[in-house]
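User: Please fill in residues for this 359-position structure.
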């Protein structure tokens, strides 16, 4: 793999930078529930939730999750369906499944104590380089880099680094940079300070340079090109996949749902059946459902289209409403539940949008 290197400019005063950043952070940090203490379990859960998710969205989820599973042991002993239900609406559900798997291992191997050893923590499912650095530095005060998009944006401007942050090798570069300039006295506040600066001041499009506490250290500000950094190549356009979503009701007024496979996208979540439109038209869909599930159905109306944007694909689902005409449901193929019972089943965001249409 091609290596990228960067040398800290001689004129950059890392000691003064650390002082100014830490002073600002201590006086301006947001009061967030996971900052109430340095409990590694709480910090771990918060960092998993914060992956690809905004802070304001995470706060209520974090609070209810901690209320329901206040200790690692209680989370490890929980049923996966209940854990997924607690995560419902937060998206990226593999995070919840991986966390659940990992806490079970912590209970079994480490007596329910989050390991502070880098090698041990790294082995746990769902712990990537960023989460590893965040937990080690924030919870245990280890001088480890925790490099996310905020940190790369801030440091690309401060140190005038013009490498493409969309490339994996560039993240490695920033990790090496952080290792060189991190505070060994307070690595927890240093890493959080960089993240906080990116969230509150050093915004992607309109950085508030005039109020920035480390403005005098910023080489991009000195050059006047802070809005041109960081360099990031555009992602490929997301593929759009079109589906039919089947809301099927029986003569008892119950709705048909099924559990997704235990591997792959949205694993173990529940759903109204969906099928790719390129595979069936609506008439073929009726025949397919009878063969697949043993039920004869009658489509009586088409509803709205719902849409959900995943990181790699966009799903557009045309909702169609149908009733059961006859037949006998195959064993093991889904179940009929009332609207009230539906609330007990963890459903992904796209399915939540469908469910809202039938209330």
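Assistant: Residues filled in for all 359 positions:
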């Amino acid at each position: 793999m091609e290596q990228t290197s960067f040398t800290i400019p001689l004129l950059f005063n890392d000691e003064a930078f650390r002082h100014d950043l830490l002073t600002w952070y201590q006086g301006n940090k947001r009061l967030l529930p996971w900052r109430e203490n340095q409990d590694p379990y709480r910090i771990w859960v918060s960092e998993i939730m914060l992956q690809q998710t905004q802070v304001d969205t995470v706060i209520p989820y974090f609070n209810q999750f901690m209320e329901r599973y206040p200790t690692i042991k209680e989370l490890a002993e929980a049923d996966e369906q209940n854990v997924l239900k607690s995560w419902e609406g937060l998206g990226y559900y593999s995070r919840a499944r991986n966390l659940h798997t990992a806490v079970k291992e912590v209970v079994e191997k480490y007596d329910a104590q989050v390991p502070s050893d880098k090698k041990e923590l790294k082995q746990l499912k769902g712990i990537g380089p960023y989460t590893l650095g965040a937990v080690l530095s924030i919870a245990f005060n280890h001088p480890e880099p925790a490099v996310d998009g905020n940190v790369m944006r801030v440091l690309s401007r401060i140190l005038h680094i013009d490498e493409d942050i969309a490339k994996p090798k560039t993240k490695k570069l920033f990790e090496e940079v952080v290792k060189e300039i991190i505070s060994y006295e307070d690595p927890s506040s240093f890493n959080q300070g960089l993240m906080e600066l990116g969230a509150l001041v050093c915004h992607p499009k309109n950085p508030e340079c005039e109020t920035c506490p480390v403005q005098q250290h910023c080489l991009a500000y000195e050059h006047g090109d802070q809005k041109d950094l960081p360099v990031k190549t555009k992602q490929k356009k997301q593929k759009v996949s079109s589906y039919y979503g089947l809301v099927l009701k029986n003569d008892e007024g119950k709705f048909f749902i099924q559990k997704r496979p235990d591997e792959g996208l949205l694993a173990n979540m529940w759903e109204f059946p969906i099928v790719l439109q390129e595979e069936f038209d609506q008439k073929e869909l009726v025949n397919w459902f009878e063969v697949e599930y043993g039920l004869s159905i009658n489509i009586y109306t088409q509803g709205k289209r719902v849409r959900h944007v995943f990181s790699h694909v966009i799903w557009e689902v045309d909702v169609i409403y149908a009733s059961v005409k006859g037949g006998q449901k195959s064993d093991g193929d889904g179940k009929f539940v009332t609207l009230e019972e539906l609330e007990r089943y963890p459903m992904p965001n796209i399915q939540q949008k469908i469910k809202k249409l039938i209330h």
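For context: The CA atoms of residues 23 and 253 lie 62 Å apart.
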